[in-house]
Design brief:
Blueprint lengths: L2 E2 L5 H6 L5 E6 L4 H15 L3 E6 L4 H6 L7 E6 L2 E7 L4 H10 L2
Parallel strand pairs: 1-3, 2-3
Antiparallel strand pairs: 2-4, 4-5
Length: 102
């Protein structure tokens, strides 16, 4: 299961993580976000590090990472952003991009 990320745990779960971490910025009212969710959950089940930020509940995190549209998927490695995708992405594409940063 993808981790629920908040401003309280973002630093340790994402910025302090070893290896790449996929972060899905989403909202419950967003149709494309709901379409994206199964792919993110599947990656987490397959052993990839993945988390979700509800932009309605965590507006400061969304602002800090300049999330203007959702879903926005950001890959972090070694405490910094290394890749960004906006809009629904296939699970295959997400895995391919995560694998680039292993």
């Amino acid at each position: 299961m993808a981790k629920i990320l908040t401003s309280d745990n973002f630093g340790t779960e994402v910025l302090g993580a070893s290896g790449p971490v996929l972060v899905d910025f989403w909202a419950p009212w967003c149709g494309p976000c709901r379409m994206q969710a199964p792919a993110v959950e599947k990656l987490a089940e397959e052993g990839y590090q993945a988390g979700k930020v509800n932009v309605d509940e965590q507006p400061a995190l969304a602002a800090e990472y300049q999330v203007m549209n959702i879903p926005t998927l950001i890959i972090f490695k070694d405490g910094r952003e290394v890749d960004r995708m906006v809009g629904v992405q296939s699970g295959t594409e997400l895995a391919r991009r995560l694998d680039l940063y292993k």
